[in-house]
């Protein structure tokens, strides 16, 4: 079995930073995690990628092509489709390794995850390569600190979960940037109760008018009762360890590992009472 995290989220939500932080965290525990850059438009990341999709196709090539004439958004979708059509390139680069752990750093175009099928196709391809995958959806915590924004972020996360049908975890990134009062506000939402969120929103005249609609959305979120967010502060090692453990449990990483045993001699029985163990490690 092979293990993978598919790191997704809106533009600038901290995907590449998360990939590199998780890689470094694993290295501090003497574990190797590889990162694959799947963003054909990436300009900067501070990990050394195992595979860099820009070697296959770069957004600039598509945008500069006189026949294609794509802008940045259409161009990115074109690049992603090109990757799927040429998936043998990626398959070859990923090789046929057993028990490896790879994080895929995806592009920041939300449509890819909420309703398009490209990422679904990519997932199928990775599953054929024997990867057990956890979807990791990052949302910048700074955009989640009031009721309506939290509801809209929750809806985005729910769309991704339904569209990709993958074991999934939602992460609130950049917690280190929140003020104390913003953290307090966010705490209220971390066990999302749509009704208390709606009560918060009622003060706004627009929300007053669309109360029934907001209530229906709240009910939808509650009915699925799947959307939960894990706050992440990459500067807090304990927090990083918790998130990694949660994901590792989801993909059952480490469960197939051989149990480490210590050799020891049979106990030397003395008078049937005292038992001495001679332990050789
Ligand atoms: N303080 C702080 N800054 C962060 C964190 N994560 C990301 N950033 C900053 O946010 C900006 C965007 O981070 P990236 O990791 O490039 O985000 P991304 O989601 O990969 O962006 P795209 O690939 O362009 O969609 C950079 O300036 C990062 O330094 C974090 O946890 N804390
Ligand atoms: Mg990135």
Automatic annotation (TrEMBL):
The keyword Ubl conjugation does not apply. Keywords: GTP-binding, Hydrolase, Nucleotide-binding. Pfam families: ATP_bind_1 (PF03029). The keyword Nucleotide-binding applies. Belongs to the GPN-loop GTPase family. Small GTPase required for proper nuclear import of RNA polymerase II and III (RNAPII and RNAPIII). May act at an RNAP assembly step prior to nuclear import. Small GTPase required for proper localization of RNA polymerase II (RNAPII). May act at an RNAP assembly step prior to nuclear import. Binds to RNA polymerase II (RNAPII). This is GPN-loop GTPase 3. It comes from Melipona quadrifasciata.
């Amino acid at each position: 079995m092979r293990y993978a995290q598919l790191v997704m989220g809106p533009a600038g939500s901290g995907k590449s930073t998360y990939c590199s932080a998780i890689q470094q965290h694993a290295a501090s525990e003497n574990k190797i995690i590889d990162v694959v850059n799947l963003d054909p438009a990436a300009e900067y990341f501070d990990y050394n990628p195992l595979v860099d999709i820009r070697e296959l196709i770069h957004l600039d090539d598509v945008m500069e092509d006189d026949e294609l004439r794509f802008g940045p958004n259409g161009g990115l979708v074109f690049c992603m489709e090109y990757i799927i059509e040429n998936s043998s390139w990626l398959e070859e680069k990923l090789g046929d390794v057993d028990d490896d752990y790879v994080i895929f750093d995806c592009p920041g175009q939300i449509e890819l995850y909420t309703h398009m099928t490209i990422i679904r196709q990519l997932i199928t391809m990775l599953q054929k390569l024997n990867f057990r995958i956890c979807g990791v959806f990052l949302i910048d915590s700074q955009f989640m600190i009031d009721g309506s924004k939290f509801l809209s972020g929750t809806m985005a996360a729910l769309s991704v979960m339904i569209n990709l049908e993958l074991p999934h975890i939602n992460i609130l990134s950049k917690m280190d940037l929140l003020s104390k009062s913003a953290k307090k506000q966010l705490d209220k939402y971390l066990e999302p109760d749509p009704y208390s969120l709606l009560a918060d929103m009622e003060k706004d005249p627009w929300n007053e008018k669309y109360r029934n609609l907001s209530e229906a959305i709240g009910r939808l979120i509650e009915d699925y009762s799947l959307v939960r967010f894990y706050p992440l502060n990459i500067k807090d090692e304990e927090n990083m360890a918790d998130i990694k453990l949660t994901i590792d449990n989801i993909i059952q990483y480490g469960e197939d590992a051989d149990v480490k045993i210590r050799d020891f001699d049979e106990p030397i029985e003395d008078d049937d009472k005292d038992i001495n163990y001679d332990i050789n490690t």
